[in-house]
User: Fold these one by one.
Assistant:
Number 1:
Amino acid sequence: MSDGSRTSRMRRTSVWLEDRPEARRKASGASQTEGLDREKITAAAVRLLDTEGLARFSMRRLAADLGVTAMSVYWYVDRKDDLLELALDAVEGELEVPDAEAEGADWREQLRQAAFALRGLLRRHPWASGTLGSFLNVGPSAMGFQLGVRRVLLRSGLPEQQADGALAALFSFVYGHAAVEESWNRRCSEAGVSSQDCFDALRTALGARPEYTAGAEAVYPVAERDFGVALECVIAGIEAGTRGGRGPAPQGRATPVIPPQPPSPEDR
Amino acid sequence: MSDGSRTSRMRRTSVWLEDRPEARRKASGASQTEGLDREKITAAAVRLLDTEGLARFSMRRLAADLGVTAMSVYWYVDRKDDLLELALDAVEGELEVPDAEAEGADWREQLRQAAFALRGLLRRHPWASGTLGSFLNVGPSAMGFQLGVRRVLLRSGLPEQQADGALAALFSFVYGHAAVEESWNRRCSEAGVSSQDCFDALRTALGARPEYTAGAEAVYPVAERDFGVALECVIAGIEAGTRGGRGPAPQGRATPVIPPQPPSPEDR
DNA sequence: ACCTGAACACCGTTCAAGT
DNA sequence: ACCTGAACACCGTTCAAGT
């Protein structure tokens, strides 16, 4: 369980890799209605994150919500980051793990559903995309979902060596897209401006700079439609890989596409 | 220039949309060797971010590096976030804008180069992916690069309505991938553990949970190769779109793929 | 075993004051 | 025009002490 880093003051890489003293895993058997435990604290953290956002989430506010002193929480959790990891995996429990062996299941449609489900989650809990860029996201719910999607992907006929690349294309894209969308929403709402107004201002500002007049009219908000188009793009790319034609075929081909002429040593 | 939000205490959506009083844009004409200005402050910020990371970057430390009081910086910059936006666009100036009209240029190869260049940038300045999820990234360098890549994309023959979806697929993917990679690197190095050790620990931990034994052996670090595979996947998807076959064709087709059976109203 | 209070070493930012 | 010092309202976290 340990990641071998538990010397003196070293940090842990993830809550999910902690050596938790048995003593603290809840002394008496079942749930008591009185007193705190990790589940109650995590649930309160999710609630606070949902209502206040990541920036205003603090241990002191959380403790206040729980009607307890700020430092009580530290009995159950080593530090704030651990709590954020717990909260992240808790909401990821909302994801339905796709069943690759389901009757008549189409892998394309299952991938679409998984991608939209993940995006829906990141929209319902806007703070989550902020934590995804900081933590490992290897909690039980996240891993279950990821491994489930991986099994679906393998049913497409994609060679196993390419499965993780395709998974990366799918998940990194959904995550990146959600993160960008979220930062637009947050910034605009903090400024009390509609996303449309903000974009109009941006187009005007760019139009004033001579170097961008070519193309500035193409600037507009992250459109609803773009997500679908981009997703189909990724899925079509996976499909191309299954046909062995153009597509994600990394090695052993006449014209190896990876890496094609390194532009700079450190970039590839 | 203004985004219409400059009432009383409202925040701005971006530094790039500020109304900057002419008085503060540098009084006398050219550069002086003495005294501060935005360029010097931004350069110092990039230096500090590169050496210390986003978490340890503070206005007080920056001011100390500049040999000045913490509050002097606020004469040139409204708040810390503005400075981070300036630093982000400053490093994005390292990106070479592709020339869509170049002789004998292949759009696929140009897209590959752009993607690798962006990833290289995010690796040289690991803090940058952390800011990309928080700010609008609409500075002059970022916009120049993005519009340049967009022109390359259009030369593929992809219909204009799909260009932004394809751009989103490409950029969101590179950004998401870099962010995940960065969080692994940072977490492992903070714990003083190699990425490999960390993954071994994770696999062991997952193996101990009965629900993951199926597939746990598939867990391994974000591989170097995955990025290339995923990138080819996106490019193949774009190419599929240009052939009008399967691929990112959003509307007006026999079997509309977007949206296919909404799983839940809020998710699509 | 669980919770508290006081304290430490920081933050970003405001504001009145200096030159 | 530019820079400072003191202050405000917070942080995460440690630690000794309570029950």
Number 2:
Amino acid sequence: MLRGAALRVTRPRVAVLSAVHAHPHADTESIIGAVRRELPRVSHQAVYDVLRALTAASLVRRIEPSGSVARYESRVGDNHHHVICRSCGLLADVDCAAGAAPCLTASDGQGFSIDEAEVIYWGLCPDCSTA
Amino acid sequence: MLRGAALRVTRPRVAVLSAVHAHPHADTESIIGAVRRELPRVSHQAVYDVLRALTAASLVRRIEPSGSVARYESRVGDNHHHVICRSCGLLADVDCAAGAAPCLTASDGQGFSIDEAEVIYWGLCPDCSTA
DNA sequence: CCATAAACTTGACTCATTCCAGAAAAGCGG
DNA sequence: CCGCTTTTCTGGAATGAGTCAAGTTTATGG
């Protein structure tokens, strides 16, 4: 995957990429933890750099919900969205409501050339909902 | 407006509320600046507190786009969304594509009880688009 | 196997936002 | 209009995710 994106294959990069695949929606802190279980000597700076490089190469996607730190996921390019629980912060994937990339059509784009529509559904997860 | 929300009417609150109405999509720093033009002695803490109270009372709405600081706007309750320019950060309002609150229906809500759908369109503003 | 550009380490630093504790002001019943 | 209670404001310090910079190491193409 890294070579396919014209990125050098280094141990930290492989470890970060695996961690993101193994822990979807993990925040940076968790990823650093997961990476250090394999490579105890990586700096947090390296993880930040790698995550930025992977995001720029579209190998991972960065999500940054209001009131939360940045999280990363490995599902890319499939135009899916997210639901977040207002109470416990649980984050889940949701497939796009109307097919491929419907949300790209705003009724009035103000003259902007839009390339992505990001949708976040807010509510309560099943557990918090019954409680 | 403040009384209607059962909030005490204080000078800082009035000033903050006016500032948000006068400068849509302003960040906290700008709001502090605008407020101090009228009331030079308000602390930044007061502005933060007031903004939180106003947000909780739904008199203003807080928006927190990725890679940006929190911004506030006075349009509330009309289910509108936002377009953001990837290049210059310009933020504009967009009315909801399909009427009242269409985005509330996710194809598969994972069992969540959803109460809001937040949509952010990313792209280039007219100016950055031509440049 | 070598040169070189890209990636990593270390440690300090930024900056939005929050926490704290004491001082001040608003609103209410009288 | 007056005190009392509650809420809000002030000022300063703290938090913490994320960034910067300089020097060292490492992957890769020839």
